[in-house]
Amino acid sequence: xxxxxxxxxxxxxxxxxxxxxxxxxxxxxxxxxxxxxxxxxxxxxxxxxxxxxxxxxxxxxxxxxxxxxxxxxxxxxxxxxxxxxxxxxxxxxxxxxxxxxxxxxxxxxxxxxxxxxxxxxxxxxxxxxxxxxxxxxxxxxxxxxxxxxxxxxxxxxxxxxxxxxxxxxxxxxxxxxxxxxxxxxxxxxxxxxxxxxxxxxxxxxxxxxxxxxxxxxxxxxxxxxxxxxxxxxxxxx
Length: 237
Hints:
single chain; 237 residues; alpha+beta; 4-stranded antiparallel beta sheet; 3-stranded antiparallel beta sheet; 7 helices
């Protein structure tokens, strides 16, 4: 049976069961593993954290586990840790080779872009593929300075998570997204109401598609609630 733990045992909390001299071994382990890992990272190359692909992100996680355990666990031999790190890096290099040689392998490994906005309207099915809701897409557009869906000709969520926005010139009428709908809700118009079917200049409240003629349901997403479509008063240059 394990020995009873004594609360606030400072020797146990600070040093554990290892002798104080083990601190010098930790220092040595850290220096060796750091220099070795640094050399391998320099060899495989790298990008900034915001540009990490899925493969590179997994590489960071795997290396972090292999490196961390070898730094302060006395029962983890350095050569074992170095072998694990080497194998992880070689797997990463192999995947990089496949990506360079095969477009299908690149798509399978890195993924593909999603077409979030097309001609001023949201592609709900595309954002759903990436687990994103309407509010999240609009938040990403606002971070790019977009005030109205009508400003956007196309927007793509790249495989690495970055958003590419291409502006319409000139901007068309569309759904305003500034301020956020969570702060100032947009008016909702039900064209099934008597007389409302003749209102012009509407867009779908769900996806932003401009209303065509006197249709009562959006021809893109099938929703039947509309909101006024306006032209943004301020467009980026």
